[in-house]
Fold this protein.
Amino acid sequence: MPQAAKELYRSANGDKWSLVLDDTMARPQVLHEPNRASGGQASRTEIGDFLVRDAHGPQHAELLRLIGSLVE
């Protein structure tokens, strides 16, 4: 079954952050897919950890905006 994902932010260098649902625990996580040039591996982070770790980027602001839109 395909994984549901909501793209949060795509940087100018091609890195991409998406909100995804963990298939096993049914918990939302942030999926970071680095650009090809960086050679990095995709990683998943729990939302709470994502928001407290270096939380000053546009990807963090977009996640907070999305969360806020749920209660408007």
User: Anything to note?
Assistant: The first strand starts at residue 5 and ends at 10. Strands lie at 5-10, 16-21, 28-33, 43-46.
